[in-house]
Design goal:
This protein is mainly α. It is built from 9 helices and 2 strands, in the order βααααααααβα. Helix content is about 65%, strand content about 0%.
């Protein structure tokens, strides 16, 4: 068995994906430090923990596993990027937080502005790592997978529908919703759509390699590129 991509090309893609995930992680850090409300998925996790014998952390793991399962059902592969998401996002948050350079903001408008900038970095991070075609983070894969079945909708609108659904279900279950939560549910998709439109990037046009596809029985030269349909 041989690699489906030449090793230099594979390493180049992995490094590109890692850079994108790192930028995404910084964006995630800023949305938390904005301190104007939880992200919609966190609201869902909190609401779930109120009705099941699960801690908030256990509910978070449960939701994450359900998202990954849904990704698989939608035909989205488990790629290297999904592993990088697990390995990079949390540690980058802890590293930046340890520097103590960004305290929790106390200003509503400043927090909303910071959250918006964080959303911008989230979109830019996706713009960097998705073209590496090594998969997406779990939630991004859900957006792309659902978007392939809602082809008439811009990908940003698909993101709004998913985030808003998570927010609504979490709120109905008793999760706390702040103004920043509502802004994230609506704004993240709008910012994503704007960034992707400016870059003329359509994530639904990519074909990703799953981890199981990185090694194949056929020669690497026959596998070809996997970045476009």
């Amino acid at each position: 068995m041989r690699l489906t991509l030449p090793l230099p090309a594979l390493l180049r893609r992995v490094l590109t994906a890692a850079l994108g995930v790192a930028v995404f992680a910084v964006g995630n850090f800023l949305t938390v430090k904005a301190n104007v409300g939880q992200a919609p998925w966190n609201v869902l996790c909190m609401g779930l923990s109120l009705h099941l014998p699960l801690s908030y952390g256990a509910a978070t793991v449960t939701i994450s596993l359900l998202i990954v399962l849904t990704d698989l059902l939608l035909g989205e592969p488990i790629g290297v990027t999904m592993l990088l998401d697990t390995l990079i996002v949390g540690p980058v948050f802890d590293l930046l937080d340890s520097f103590g350079l960004m305290p929790m903001l106390q200003s509503l408008w400043g927090g909303l502005a910071l959250m918006t900038f964080g959303m911008l970095l989230l979109a830019v991070g996706q713009l960097i790592y998705m073209p590496a075609c090594l998969g997406c983070g779990p939630r991004a894969a859900l957006t792309v997978g659902a978007g392939k079945r809602l082809k008439r909708l811009p990908i940003g609108v698909v993101e709004i529908l998913i985030q808003s659904s998570a927010c609504l279900i979490g709120w109905l279950l008793g999760g706390g919703v702040g103004i920043g939560t509502l802004w994230f549910a609506l704004g993240n998709g709008m910012v994503m759509q704007a960034v992707f439109h400016i870059a003329r990037f359509e994530p639904r046009g990519l074909v990703h390699l799953g981890i199981h596809q990185l090694v194949a029985r056929r020669p690497a030269a026959e596998a070809g590129e996997s970045c476009e349909k």
